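Two proteins, back to back. First:
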Amino acid sequence: MKLIFERGNEGQALCLMPACDVPEVTLEGFEREGKLYLPHVSENELSRHYTEIAKRVHGVNDGFYPLGSCTMKYNPKVNEEAAALPGFVGVHPLQGDKNSQGCLEVLYKIEESLAEISGMDNVTLQPAAGAHGEFTGLLLIKSYLESIGATNRKKIIVPDSAHGTNPASAVMCGFEIVNIPSGADGCVDLEALSGAVGEDTAGLMLTNPNTVGVFDKNILEITKIVHDAGGLCYYDGANLNAVMGVVRPGDMGFDCIHFNLHKTFSTPHGGGGPGSGPVGCKAFLAPFLPGIRVNKKPCGCYTSGKAEKSFGEVKAFGGNFLVVVKALTYILTLGKEGIPEAAKNAVLNANYMQACLKDDFDLAYDVICMHEFVLTLDKFHKETGISALDLAKGLLDHGIHPPTMYFPLIVHEALMIEPTETEPKEMLDEAVAVFKELKKLAYENPQALHDAPVKTPVRRLDDVRAARTPVLRYNFE
């Protein structure tokens, strides 16, 4: 496939930009030193270029997308229509509260909704993504501990099944990491947790249901152990899709949480963004929140300001506003009844698919799962030579995006499957049939899976070469 710079010739062009309607100004001292490289293509060539790119990608609009731990579900198009309304697209963050009442109402309503869904008291919409939300939540904890003089509390407890961003975020905030093992059931080992907490404990980072798709039955005891030691509890909201509207992290004993609007609340995050990772917290942490704080006056109008002891800013203004608009549209569309129904259907779909596959593949944890379940292909790999990676590549030839591979790290040859609530039973049955077909192929003709994929635009890539000698810049010379 040609790059856009390899298409067309000097002199070819298209006219999409309107004529300049303001005076042109030359900024002295800011001139470009070198030549500006822009592609010279016609509108026809430009259209073909992007059509060709579209044909080479796979997303939820192309086929089954069971990407575990990420909730890559269908995004209703009404969200996009709402976010494209002129009053939202054309607003400027500096035009003042008086001329931004509709936008401030959006911020107020979604903060109110997210607080209710999570069992928190306040929310900031400023963080741009999940890991950014983790960073923000941990800064809240750090600011609070410093405000009460508990500067000795430097350690964050993280289970070995946690998302990799958890310890990274904690370290970026200046904390030390205490890693604790999971029990045989994939949940927190209470004895290990009790032994890890102490006077230097700042908090615990945990998601529930956890990364193996299991709801930890000891969650109230877990948060109590941490609180009794003087620490705070942080909820990683990556798996909130399984429990939204059913149980609330705040009621489990968590003090703050980040949401993934670009996962749970149906705003696209494929291809790197844009995302949104709001952070909710209990009232005692609210004075330290970053970003715009929106208040509703008795007259019904809205005002914005800053939190009393805000630790600063983590992004400009109110965050990725149009992503927030999409999320609020989704929440209002589903309503109080639809949100828990979506969560229950996600759990139902995962359990149905798990039940259909458990006789053909080994489950990492043979229990009723939540939104996702994990297969371990360890024995299968030893018997056939076919790894989790090989099976995932085989799925591509059947139009199915691979699930998460080799995560969580505590499961050998792991495939984490999350069908989400937006898939019908017919699609799940088709996917199950493909998994079983690939299992049969692994025993009868394993080389076919070693060679897979063969029907995709790009075959297997050289991962080592890509990692060691990446081509990051086009050579125009």
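And the second protein:
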Amino acid sequence: MTNRKKAIFFAALAGVFLIDRLVKFIVLSGFRWDSEALSITLVFNKGVAFSLFAFLGEWLKYIQLLIIVGVAVYAFAAKLLDRYFLPLAFVLGAGLSNVLDRFIHGGVVDYIHWHYWFDFPIFNFADVMIDTAVLLFLWIGIKKN
């Protein structure tokens, strides 16, 4: 992995983490916003996507932390960073921010609520970055070198 890719990896990881922390700080400080399609409202998600696995309680944060560490170790050991440095940075930065929420607040700080045409579950910036990473993994994986 080149020094340029390492720099991009660590900058993207830190950027995603810090942007997510900043937006959550603003929402936790009381910022709210409502429109016809979108609202900013504070919710603490005790589970994962769509509140799945909330029954795991306190164990969920430790399981997620182990998964994040496992992904990072595997990515470094399998030398996946050379090809997938950007989506891995997005996943790790976002995942670490969401897990930190669990340790600090007892659940993930969610705040984006789409409610136009249909009511979508509330999510956050880190969730968007994880979804973006999945698309990047697919795009990089299928594109020809």
